[in-house]
Design a protein that fits this description.
Blueprint: E1 7-8, E2 10-13, E3 18-21, H1 27-35, E4 39-40, E5 48-51, E6 59-62, H2 78-91, E7 97-104, E8 109-117, E9 120-127, H3 133-145, E10 148-155, E11 184-189, H4 192-198, E12 203-207, E13 213-223, E14 226-235, E15 240-242, E16 245-247, H5 255-266
Parallel strand pairs: 9-10, 10-12
Antiparallel strand pairs: 1-6, 2-3, 2-4, 5-6, 7-8, 8-9, 11-14, 12-13, 13-14, 15-16
Helix pairs in contact: 3-4
């Protein structure tokens, strides 16, 4: 098990046994609860202190580093906190259950955000740090074994253009949307984790945690560490969760692309 994360966006309020996120109450109230030592980590039960500022995302920090219940986390940065908070705020609307940093005992995983609509459960992950392909695939399969749809967003920091982008040529053979959502084509650098994701889904989604803009790469082909792809951009607020996956505003335009992609896989 890895070392415990030093920060979290959630806490248990000891006087009410209520689960709080770091933006549920005014900062002065959370600060008073912190000073009264009434905030504990929901994962390791360690005491927490409230951290607030004009620039940083409000969060809780462990007073002492302890071993939390879940090993699946990445080092906390303000960008990572902001990203998972955006996902939680966007997709919690209308959910029958929603939680930040939800620990799932059966798989011993901690989802950045977790939402449930009727019987459909979603784990929302904002991935900035690098992982091996094997580790990502293990996490993905653990979620799916429990009938949890895992929806992954990569941090914009992982987005790397290999060549300059350009408008999609009218001679391009693939049936992809043109002239919508800033459509361009280009080549992009991939790491092993991204290649594992592409082996299961011809899309990669990047989230800018500051602006809430989603950058979507639609795969044309992958050679070594270079992905040739089509890039589209739209706000996270234009996306929703449907039928066990992320439904973007591009989705209604992709029927021909998916048919083409599936024919290529069958060859």
């Amino acid at each position: 098990m890895d070392a415990a994360p030093s920060t979290t966006l959630v806490a248990i309020r000891l006087d009410t046994n209520e689960r709080l996120s770091s933006n549920d109450l005014p900062p002065d109230v959370l600060r008073a609860l912190s000073e009264a030592r009434l905030l504990r980590c929901p994962h390791c039960q360690g005491l927490l202190t409230f951290k607030a500022g004009t620039v940083r995302v409000h969060h809780f920090a462990h007073l002492n580093l302890t071993a939390c219940a879940s090993a699946d986390h990445e080092p906390e940065t303000d960008a990572h906190r902001q990203g998972k908070l955006r996902l939680f705020q966007q997709f919690r609307v209308g959910a029958s259950f929603a939680a930040l940093e939800q620990h799932l005992p059966i798989t011993d995983q901690r989802a950045d955000a977790f939402v449930q609509f009727d019987t459909q459960r979603y784990a929302l992950e904002f991935q900035q740090a690098n992982n091996t392909a094997e580790h990502w695939l293990e996490r993905h399969h653990l979620y799916r074994q429990q009938n949890i749809a895992d929806v992954w967003f990569l941090g914009k920091i992982r987005y790397q253009e290999h060549t300059s982008t350009a408008a999609i040529s009218s001679f391009d053979p693939l049936p992809v949307p043109r002239d919508v959502f800033g459509a361009v084509s280009g080549a992009f650098r991939m790491r092993e984790m991204e290649k594992a994701m592409l082996s299961l889904n011809p899309q990669l989604r990047y989230l800018d945690p500051d602006t809430g803009e989603v950058t979507l790469l639609l795969m044309r082909d992958l050679h070594g560490n270079t992905l040739r792809a089509y890039r589209y951009q739209f706000p996270l607020t234009a996306c929703e969760l449907r039928l066990g996956d992320l439904y973007t505003p591009l989705e209604p335009l992709l029927d021909d692309f998916y048919a083409y992609h599936n024919r290529r896989k069958e060859r």
